[in-house]
Amino acid sequence: MRSDTKPITSHLTSRRSALVWFRDDLRLGDNPTLTAALTSGLPVTALYIFDDATPGPRALGAASRWWLAQSLKSLAADCTKIGLPFAVRRGSAKTMVAEAAEEAGAEAAFWSRRYSADLSNIDAAVEEELSAKGVRVESFNASLLREPWEVKAKTGGPLKVFSPYWRAANTMGEPAAPLPRPKKADVIAGPTLGGVEIEALGLEPTTPDWAGSLREVWTPGETGAVEAVERFLEEGLKGYAENRDRPDMEATSRMSPRLRFGEVSPRQLWHAVERAKEEGMATSRDVEKFRTELGWREFSYHLLHHFPDLSTRNFQERFDAFPWSPPKPEHRRAWRKGLTGYPIVDAGMRQLWTTGWLHNRVRMIVASFLIKDLLIDWRDGEDWFWDTLVDADHANNAASWQWVAGSGADAAPYFRVFNPTLQGQKFDPNGDYVRAFVPELSKLPAKWIHMPWEAPGEVMRAAGVTLGKTYPEPIVDHYVARDRALAAFAKLKAASA
After folding, report:
1. Which residue intervals define the domain Photolyase/cryptochrome alpha/beta in the entry (predicted)?
2. Catalytic residue among 103, 204, 293, 419
3. What is the mean pLDDT of the chain?
4. How distant, in Å, are the alpha carbons of 15, 19, 55, 439 from that of 83?
5. What is the 3-state secondary structure (H, E, C) of 199-219?
């Protein structure tokens, strides 16, 4: 692991500024990178680079690009308020950072660490370039409670099961308290750099402009994140442990996109829920369950660090021989558009398409349906989520899809096949979630809304539902599909025995 700090070479002592390179830490509060720069005694200049020129890293999906645009606008406004010069540039990070450091007369550059292999390689190249020019580089953990390499098995290697990982992480003590948000008085402004307008990055859709529904649901940026945290503490945290699996209730934090882009830090969330517990706003059980969800995110990054091809290769190599079915285009299309004939699946996929987000329980249901009912390779679904989720995350997305597939670390057993009807009845008992996203079924009684094919004819007529016309018939028989999936798994077990 590289050292955080490298010495300044003597021939460049005339340089008198610090460059802060923002990446996945688009906030001012609890940002150790920014704090270090502001307390260095150097005038500070900030930079964001949209790097779509360096080969290798996975390009952002469309929904994530939209979120990034809004978050950058918010960050730019926040930097202006505290007098911090902030520029946006587009191009190769290696080239752009070196040029910006030269223009700013920087003797030090500060950034927050990234953990996917492609992005870490870029950072290493940038660091080498700057160091060769005598610019000191300091990097910080601004995204995680623990660095991925800090939590270890007793043997010193990585942990591959969540429960022992989280136990080990929790023995390391409480995360440090969040750093305060800097004020204008904290800033010694460095040189103002030239750049491009955020709109010039082409991150937002134009023709057609499909982001209208996202604008109705989300307010990206640090200010929106602060408001969302307070709303969750007041309205969602109490009862979280019991209700978080209910998509028909506002019982989850919806912090995932804000964590993804660093508008809020996990340390801020950790201590915020503790404060809420102390003030009687939630129980210890609620707080521990929420922290466990933060823990799964930490575990996902632990896996990504140690197994960098997590999004492209089966974690368990025996799954390389799994007999996936050649995807039927009509099945893939029905799944993506929410037209499978299974209401809870269709509601989830339509929620994803219209809001860029999907309830965690429903993520598992729709993933299980694609993988096990349709026998479509998990990577196909992971790729769709990458494009359509505002919270598409290098670690979480891949680790979670592999968990459902049974091919990942600490995976759900492959023979655990979610029954979409029973899942809907259990977690959306009144059908309110389905009604919200599948309006053509809105008049069906709760008894039938998760299995309209079983409803009596008079009930269907009264609800205005005609299978095959107003709402599709199931594209597969779940019980037949389940048997087929279990047979495929048995074949895999036999081949790897």
Report:
1. 16-145
2. 293
3. 94
4. 21, 15, 35, 49
5. HHHCCCCCCCCCCHHHHHHCC
User: What amino acid occupies position 432?
Assistant: D
Q: In 3D, which of 445, 232, 437 has the Cα closest to residue 339?
A: 437
CA distance 350 to 388: 11
CA 167 to chain CA centroid, nearest Å: 23
Q: Catalytic site residue 360?
A: yes
Annotated active-site residue in 121, 243, 360, 419:
360
Q: Which domains does the chain have, with CATH numbers?
A: 10-142 (3.40.50.620), 144-182+220-308 (1.25.40.80), 317-492 (1.10.579.10)
Are the beta carbons of 67 and 201 closer than 8 angstroms?
no
Q: Which of 296, 357, 384, 403 is catalytic?
A: 296
Mean pLDDT of 364-375: 97
Residue-wise pLDDT tens digits, 86-119 = 999 999 999 999 999 999 999 999 999 999 999 9
The yes-or-no answer on residue 170 being catalytic is no
pLDDT for 491 equals 86
Rounded to 10 deg, the angle between the 360-368 and 378-388 helix axes is: 140
What is d(CA 323, CA 306) in angstroms, rounded to the nearest whole number?
27
Question: Which residues carry a binding-site annotation?
Answer: 240, 252-256, 290, 391-393
Identify whether 66 is a catalytic site residue.
Answer: no
Residue 422, pLDDT > 80, answer yes
293 included as an active-site residue: yes
Q: Considering 66, 357, 401, 403, which one is annotated as catalytic?
A: 401
CB atoms within 10 A of CB 118: 14
Residues whose CB is less than 8 angstroms from the CB of residue 61 and which lie 6 or more positions away in sequence, other chains included: 386, 387, 388, 389, 392
Tokens (6 digits) for 217 = 């649901």
Whether the model clears a pTM of 0.90, i.e. scores above it, the answer is: yes
∠411-415-418 over CA atoms, to 5°?
Answer: 90
What residue has token string 């008894």? 447
Helices (H) and strands (E) in the chain, counts: 21, 5
378 is annotated as an active-site residue: yes
Residues annotated in a binding site for FAD: 240, 252-256, 290, 391-393
Confidence (pLDDT) at 197: 97
The residues pairing with 59 across neighbouring beta strands, listed in sequence order, are none
User: Pick the catalytic residue: 378, 384, 386, 448?
Assistant: 378
- Three-state DSSP at 50 gives strand
Task: Give the single-character DSSP code of 184.
Answer: G
Tokens found for residue 175: 């995360």
Provide the token pair at 234: 């007041």
